[in-house]
Amino acid sequence: MSTEVSIAPSAARSRARLTRFSGDLGPWPVLVGLVCIAVGFQAANSAFLTPRNLSNLILQTGTLVVLTLGIMLVLLIGEIDLSIGAVSGVTACVMGIMSALHGWPAWAAIALAIALGALIGLVQSSWIVAFKAPSFIVTLAGMLVWQGAQLILLSDQNGQLRIEDSVITSIASNYLPRPVGWTLTMLVALAGAGWVVVRRYLSQRAGYGTNSLAADLGRVLAIVAAPIVVMLVLDSYLGVPYMLVAVLAVTVTLAVVTGFTVFGRHIYAVGGNAEAARRTGVRVGSLRITVFVIASALAAFAGILEASRGFAVSVNSGGGNAALNAIAAAVIGGTSLFGGRGRVVGALLGALVISSVQNGLALIGQTAATQIIATGLILLAAVTLDMSARRKNKGTRT
User: Fold this and answer.
1) Quick check: 172 and 242 in contact, CB under 8 A?
2) Mean pLDDT for each 10-residue chunk of the chain (398 residues)?
3) Which of 6, 26, 152, 165 is the most buried (most CB within 10 A)?
4) d(CA 247, CA 284)
5) How far apart are CA 174 and CA 283, in angstroms?
6) Contact present, 74 and 80 (Cβ < 8 Å)
7) Is 50 exposed, middle or buried (0-12, 13-18, 19+ CB in 10 A)?
């Protein structure tokens, strides 16, 4: 018995050392990049770090974060979904039509849009699993189909439909009352700090290795300070936008699902080695379908957020580089294009990188072309780092 107990901490320490030297630095490279971006654009234009611009940046990033979280799940299982932008556009158009033209209440129109997104994901993923078709081709076909459907839906509205429902438009235009914002901030800070303490206690009780006390205390201070600083900045402008609460709710939910559930472990297992996962009893086909359904439902939710922000839907909703930006943000945040590696917090930070660069370039008067080029170069750098990390991992194993 004593031998088994002594082996567990040793194995945990060995895994920690392997992770430390395998090229996976977690979210730190993205955080350092964000700091450099903020410092650089603040030097170029002093308006970048003002509360007003940071609040606008949050609203600008919300849609991209939700899209990125969906595509992150798909990438984790080693697949790709090129249709998420078109899905967000067509579902938002359905919501707008049912609300503005047919008088549906907001909750019903929103529920229909999300259900339609889930149904689209079910159809596409079932096709992929049933015919063993490449997800790249199936979702590319889906992208073209849903873009065409979007054009048909708005053909009688001259390509644009204004949304008047105050509930829908308030998602991206209203803010929490100040007391509610501060209460939510303190709850988030306490929950984060409590999570670190509980995790340390459970690790010690199980006999596994833990971080040093100083490291965990530093983590608690950072977790407590981050939401308070964000709240101070937002409170000096208009407060906490409803969109931030909605996006954080989705982010936390996915973080729990991917990090602390059997379903989340199966996602990483399938992305790492689908055949090995199948032999251990994982229903790979069903899991793939479920992941695509979740991703498409999240795309629909992103379309709702974007429609709320623009007070309208149009033939351009979900178009342009929406899907490609989401893929770029996921990869920048550390999600591997080959499956099995990625974190929710990384996807969140990757989306913030994309939005920050676009926002900063717009502030200093750069064109949309420059913003697209910058995004492409950042993506190239992220993919290069991903490939380097994979080569280091292979070298470490051998």
Assistant:
1) yes
2) 41 41 64 90 93 93 96 96 96 96 96 97 97 96 96 90 94 93 93 88 80 85 91 93 94 93 96 94 96 98 95 91 91 89 93 93 89 84 73 61
3) 165
4) 29
5) 43
6) yes
7) middle
